[in-house]
Amino acid sequence: MAGKILVSTAYLPPVEYFSLVKRSDKVFIEREENYLKQTWRNRCNILSAHGIQKLTVPVYLGSIHKTPVKDIRIDYSKRWQQVHLRAMTASYNAAPYFEFYFETIQKVILNNHNFLLDLNLELIESVLRILKIENDILYTTEYEPDMNNDYDFRYRISPKKISDYNIKKYSQVFIVNEGFLPGLSIIDLVFNMGPEASYYL
Fold first, then answer.
1. Whether 127 contacts 107, CB under 8 Å
2. How many CA atoms lie within 13 A of 59 on its CB side?
3. How many other C-beta atoms lie within 10 A of the C-beta of residue 16?
4. Which of 182, 193, 59, 191 is nearest to 119 (CA)?
């Protein structure tokens, strides 16, 4: 895929998200839309010994339901950073490349960003460096209505929808227990496959 794509902001998004980024010349992240609950915008899935584990960044929504995603603040009254980092460690400390990349992810998560958008972007850019993918990542400056354009993936990549993305299977820590599980955060691929991760996108 050449040209541009339009995606939502996302917290350590699934492999499919980065596959799209890799195949595009220019990536626009939506910052003008109204925030949507129960999406990848503030959550991700990792694979634990007990199956899929959901990690969610708590956010303040304020008294107005229609809050622009660019104004969504992270709620630090909940100890979500410690919960997420402990969960990642428990799930991936046996992964071949965990020790090489965990510190990078940990540093970003502990950076105490005020806004969800900033946390997500720094994580995405950190992962892109790990994957050695060089793309222009830009924010939108105005909201573009959903017109089912080929380049618009803001609402297609969602935990509520079954993806038609045909992921290449790779070795997972708990593959013996569960069989291969798709739809996981990019960190599952990175911690398991390391320098080869980009070839699976």
1. no
2. 30
3. 21
4. 59
Residues in the chain: 201
- Using DSSP, state whether 44 is helix, strand or coil: strand
Q: Please state the pTM of the whole predicted model.
A: 0.95
| 8 Å CB contact between 80 and 56 | yes
Give the contacts of 179 (CB within 8 A, at least 6 positions apart): none
Helix, strand and coil percent figures for the chain, each rounded to 5: 35, 20, 45
Summarised one tens digit per residue, pLDDT across range 29-74 is 999 999 999 999 999 999 998 889 999 999 998 655 789 999 999 9
CB-CB contact of 135 with 27 (8 Å):
yes
**CA separation for the pair 106, 58 (Å, rounded):** 17
| DSSP character at residue 42 | S
Do the beta carbons of residue 47 and residue 172 sit within 8 Å? Answer: yes
Asked whether the beta carbons of 170 and 191 are under 8 A apart, the reply is no
Q: In what helix (H) or strand (E) does residue 63 lie, and over which residues does it extend?
A: none
Lowest mean pLDDT among 51-65, 77-91, 112-126: 51-65
Beta bridge partners of 59: 74
> For residues 34 and 66, is the Cβ–Cβ distance under 8 A?
yes
Burial class of residue 2 in the structure, from the number of CB atoms within 10 Å of its CB (0-12 exposed, 13-18 middle, 19+ buried): exposed
Tokens 């895929």 -> residue = 1
